[in-house]
Structure formats: structure tokens, C-alpha cells
Design brief:
It is a single chain. Helix content is about 60%, strand content about 5%. It is mostly helical and about 140 residues long. It has two domains: about 1-25 and about 90-135, no CATH class; about 35-85, no CATH class. The longest helix is centred in the N-terminal third of the chain and has 17 residues, at about 1-20. One of its GO terms (biological process) is sulfur compound metabolic process. InterPro entries: Gal/GlcNAc/GalNAc_ST, P-loop_NTPase. GO terms for molecular function: N-acetylglucosamine 6-O-sulfotransferase activity.
Length: about 140
């Protein structure tokens, strides 16, 4: 938990030092749920062209047949199921404890909390922190 807050502080410090044009944050679940568009954004951010083979590979991974599974496996359609599976797999008291201890970091990363409400002073403090570049509108 402490390392998450520390990671956020380090990221924010680097963002301030280097500038938004030098930093890019990509959440794993965003990449998993929309690999083609997220890859295009990442390549564009790096100033690179996306080779057609990269897009072809991503599309195959999203909708191709998985020989190991012996059936069709669509990564894109399963991404949201996998992404949200913790909501039913973790006990509610564990989720409450995580939100209690990590809620500020989760909110900074634009995650919705299920249980823990942040008080108005915390919300004001969080509002003063600019969002990571991936979430900047």
C-alpha cells in the first residue's frame, strides 16, 4: 500500500520535472480492454508508426483461436470480465480494507470506489492534483 502511494508521488514528481509531453501512463486494464487503440495511442506518443503486422497480431490475439484452450477465446470480450472479477472473488471486508488504505491512490488513478467514501477535505486535496496524462481531457 505504501509503495502504491510512493509510486504515485514519484510519478507525479517526474511528471512535474519532465513535463506531460515526456510521460505516458497506461493502465493494464485499458490495454487489455482495447489493445488496438491503446497500442496506436502509445506508438503515436512515442512518435512511431504502427506496423500493420503489429495490428494484425493484436487482432489475432483478440479474436483468434487458442489451440491451448481447444476453443475460441476472445481476449477482448473477456477483458472486462477478468478486469471486474475481483468484485465477486474478494470478500467485501477485504475490498473495504483496500479502499480504506488505498482509496486516495485509486481515486488519483480514476478508479471508482465501491465502499469507502472520501471526506470533503480529501476530495479537495485530490482535486488539486492534476490527472495523469492518460486521463487528461
Amino acid at each position: 500500500m505504501l509503495s502504491d502511494a510512493l509510486d504515485m508521488r514519484v510519478f507525479e514528481e517526474l511528471l512535474h520535472q519532465q513535463g506531460r509531453d515526456k510521460m505516458h501512463q497506461l493502465r493494464d486494464e485499458d490495454l487489455a480492454s482495447d489493445p488496438v487503440n491503446q497500442t496506436k495511442k502509445l506508438f503515436a506518443r512515442l512518435g512511431l508508426d504502427v506496423h500493420p503486422n503489429v495490428l494484425s497480431f493484436l487482432r489475432q490475439q483478440m479474436s483468434g483461436f487458442s489451440s491451448k484452450m481447444g476453443k475460441q477465446h476472445n481476449s477482448a470480450s473477456n477483458a472486462s470480465t477478468v478486469r471486474d472479477s475481483w468484485k465477486t472473488r474478494l470478500p467485501r471486508n477485504a475490498i473495504r480494507e483496500i479502499e480504506k488504505n488505498c482509496g486516495d491512490v485509486l481515486l488519483k488513478l480514476d478508479y471508482e470506489l465501491m465502499f469507502h467514501s472520501v471526506n470533503s477535505a480529501e476530495q479537495h486535496n485530490l482535486a488539486q492534483i492534476p490527472p495523469p496524462p492518460i486521463f487528461a481531457k
